Known about the structure:
Distance between the termini of chain A: 61 Å
Number of helices of chain A: 14
Strand content of chain B: under 5%
Helix content of chain A: over 70%
Largest sheet of chain B: none
Number of helices of chain B: 14
Radius of gyration of chain A: 27 Å
Largest sheet of chain A: 2 strands, antiparallel
Shape of chain B: globular
Mean pLDDT of chain B: 89
Strand content of chain A: under 5%
Largest interface: A-B, 93 and 93 residues
Oligomer: heterodimer
Structural class of chain A: mainly alpha
Shape of chain A: flat
Amino acid sequence: xxxxxxxxxxxxxxxxxxxxxxxxxxxxxxxxxxxxxxxxxxxxxxxxxxxxxxxxxxxxxxxxxxxxxxxxxxxxxxxxxxxxxxxxxxxxxxxxxxxxxxxxxxxxxxxxxxxxxxxxxxxxxxxxxxxxxxxxxxxxxxxxxxxxxxxxxxxxxxxxxxxxxxxxxxxxxxxxxxxxxxxxxxxxxxxxxxxxxxxxxxxxxxxxxxxxxxxxxxxxxxxxxxxxxxxxxxxxxxxxxxxxxxxxxxxxxxxxxxxxxxxxxxxxxxxxxxxxxxxxxxxxxxxxxxxxxxxxxxxxxxxxxxx
Amino acid sequence: xxxxxxxxxxxxxxxxxxxxxxxxxxxxxxxxxxxxxxxxxxxxxxxxxxxxxxxxxxxxxxxxxxxxxxxxxxxxxxxxxxxxxxxxxxxxxxxxxxxxxxxxxxxxxxxxxxxxxxxxxxxxxxxxxxxxxxxxxxxxxxxxxxxxxxxxxxxxxxxxxxxxxxxxxxxxxxxxxxxxxxxxxxxxxxxxxxxxxxxxxxxxxxxxxxxxxxxxxxxxxxxxxxxxxxxxxxxxxxxxxxxxxxxxxxxxxxxxxxxxxxxxxxxxxxxxxxxxx
Lengths: 307, 277
């Protein structure tokens, strides 16, 4: 017997489930592969790494050591040095690179479209070469004898050859220098696209008001490009905090730990000394730094963006 | 007054741009000229910016001393497979997230996206142990390929691109009793070709240039990719300047050729998803 509150009699439980799958089954099937890969190759490893960071890890039997690993790394001079090196590298490269990228984009934007394409292509070119290729080329550029390209260039001004990568005073700076002169291609293309997206009417209105070139730049161009700048800042910081290939190939973290970055230290701790627990703790410190910085950048930078 | 200002700006801009274009290209140029001058004889070899005598012997030495052909084959195979899997799965998932409404879609999407902030170093050690000790897949193609089979960044790109496609065609196909996968395959994919082209190119280049994971997970010479092989060569033979430059060129040249032939896609592609993302 049916009451008024009961569901329509023609919908038994099984067919409701069937209808759910008919409506949504395909969608779940479409995202199945990425979700599975995510569970196995991201979520599971992250959780395992978290547990490992509290263990003295051994493949056969690991022992729980609580905060020992974290305590060890806080007391470890090399760890602090690697943090310092990474911060110097990031502060030394990211803002300078954004400035260079911005100035180049602003100048390219003034050119005719044929020249725009030419400069875009030229400056993007190094971005298609691998980190390994770039590092090998710069190894040769920094060659300490007077056959190195940079020392030859200095020689033109009568300066003595410098042992760029081989002494602690210049090694980290060399990596920064290589980064300055490297590729700004992707950033240039993003800035140009954003500049093209600024409505011309804003500049026309500013002209009518007799606003100076500087006013137009500081009141229109720069604020409207803020989302692009934010994007370059966030991605720039994240990548430079993880710099590895150039360190591994060019300096091996040396001399005297002058170029040991945190990503390189994690690699050494794990795969040279097989201290998996300690390395996991180090990697979580890196993760926390990256997440905190990203969140601060988003909060600070996106507060006054208007579209 | 205003136009003289503009003219001065243009002159300054042109000079600066030409200088910077040279700065950008000189390392690549030097790699190329360094690879075609013979440096075998002396340790104090000084390659010339304008080579006096061209010689391919650095390339001969590079290929003779290494398994470069095998490494190139590995890189090509892996890059092609990764391009296919990424394009297929990222389009499929991107389409589902952009156009299909289903319970939990937002939660799943933002969870995936959120993990992009976690640096690779965190997952690296467990991933390595999982592959080598649990699945016993160390030093195999499967181990190199599986974790990179579809990246979250690519799903995000495809979702952005798919959401610009007209929904009306999907409804029309559904009325015509086309299956959901049929709609994806016959309606969506053909419309998404520009986005797919960009995704394919960038995935191919990124896979070709990938270093860290293949470097960790491979340990035999035959399983190395060209980037990993190159790095090992530098450690073994860092005094042979010419062969090093030849190797660096071999590692980059296929991508440089690809760049020049598909320049338009490269230069347009970067802006998809990044601007107002």
